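Cross-check.
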Amino acid sequence: MKRKPGENLHSNMTYKIEKNIPIGQLERGKYPFKMMAVGNSFKFPRESAQRVSVSASIYARKNGAKFTQRTGEKFGRIWRIK
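Predicted model, tokenized:
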């Protein structure tokens, strides 16, 4: 859909202005890395393997931890090793 010069991109949209809506908390810590001791692990769906790996890497870099991960056909598991 091409816009005409000067046409507002959002001209068809309407927005409802609301008051007194509390600011929600960010969903941080989706995975339980902070609660894991060395030797602990958790299982996750295979589809989440990439996200778990990236999250573990970021957590490890910031907190001096180390993880190893294995992924099977349906599930994966990640262990804290340091």
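The radius of gyration is 21 Å. The first helix runs from residue 49 to 63. Passed to J.P. for a second look.
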